[in-house]
Design brief:
Helix content is about 65%, strand content about 0%. The chain is mainly α and about 140 residues long. The protein folds into 2 domains: about 45 residues, no CATH class; about 90 residues. InterPro entries: HD_phosphohydro.
Length: about 140
C-alpha cells in the first residue's frame, strides 16, 4: 500500500493521507492541492466502473493511480511471492487462520471482478500475470 498514512487495522488510510497532503500543501505554493487530495480520497475505494466493465478502460489520473498501487499483482511469480510474504509480515498481528481467511476473501474478490486493472496499458501488460499470481496464492492458502 502506498498511502502516506497506512494502518492495516484502519479503513481510513486514504483520508489520513489526504489530510497529510493538505497539511504539506498549506506550507507550499503548490496550487493543485484540491485535485491531488481528491485523487487520494477517490483511490481509497480501489475500484471504478472500468474495473467492473470488461469492455471499458479508465484513462484519467484516478485509474492510473489505482493501477500503480495494484501493479505489484502483475509482477513475475517470484517477486509476487516475495511481496506476499511481506504482506503476511505486515499482518503479523493476525493468527494464521484469520489471516488466511481474510486474504482468501480479498484475493477471491480480485478474481471475480472483470478487470484487475482499469487502464488499457496496465491491463494489457499485467492482467494475465496478476490473475495467475492470485490463483496460485489462492491455491496455496487453501492447502494450508
Amino acid at each position: 500500500m502506498d498511502d502516506l498514512e497506512y494502518d492495516v487495522n484502519g479503513h481510513d488510510s486514504a483520508e489520513k493521507s489526504a489530510q497529510r497532503v493538505r497539511e504539506f500543501c498549506s506550507e507550499t505554493t503548490f496550487d493543485q492541492q484540491n485535485y491531488v487530495v481528491d485523487l487520494i480520497v477517490q483511490s481509497g475505494s480501489n475500484c471504478t466502473d472500468a474495473h467492473l466493465n470488461k469492455e471499458s478502460y479508465g484513462s484519467d489520473d484516478l485509474h492510473y493511480l489505482i493501477d500503480f498501487d495494484s501493479g505489484f499483482l502483475g509482477d513475475d511469480p517470484d517477486t509476487y511471492r516475495s511481496n506476499s510474504e511481506s504482506i503476511r509480515k505486515e499482518y503479523s498481528h493476525l493468527n494464521d487462520k484469520d489471516y488466511r481467511e481474510q486474504r482468501l476473501k480479498l484475493l477471491q474478490l480480485f478474481i471475480q471482478i472483470p478487470n484487475i486493472f482499469a487502464t488499457k496499458e496496465f491491463r494489457e501488460k499485467y492482467e494475465k500475470q496478476a490473475r495467475e499470481n492470485i490463483a496460485t496464492e489462492i491455491e496455496l492458502l487453501k492447502e494450508e
